[in-house]
Write the structure tokens for this entry.
Amino acid sequence: MGWKNVSRRSNLINRILNKTIWFIIALGLILSSCEKESKILVLELDIAELICIDGQKIFEGRILELEGIKSVSANIQTRKAQIHYRDNQVSAVKIETHLGDYGFTIDGVPGNDVARGRLPQCCFNQRSDN
């Protein structure tokens, strides 16, 4: 009779452990699926100061300071920049504000005057589009 009780108790413990493990796995899956999915969005901007290599390097360095920026591509020939970013970490408004704080002119809107004075002079030289 004693061995039967031990066997029953052992089976009961195994069933409880098995159900507990499955419960923990299901709970983990539910909690991980509740996280907000991040999307990679693309922001395209006209940057007036993208006319020289120095301006391009400063622009790329400043934008990469922000958390959530996946990649940046700045083209000095077209004066355009494409910024790929995670929408759950940073917004387009925050990106534009950040760049404006460093003096960059974004889509015709001049940035901070004091910061503009710190940009290299080559950023303001007129280039010929021959």
Notes: DSSP finds four helices and three strands in the chain. The radius of gyration is 28 Å. The CA atoms of residues 7 and 13 lie 10 Å apart. The first helix runs from residue 2 to 33.
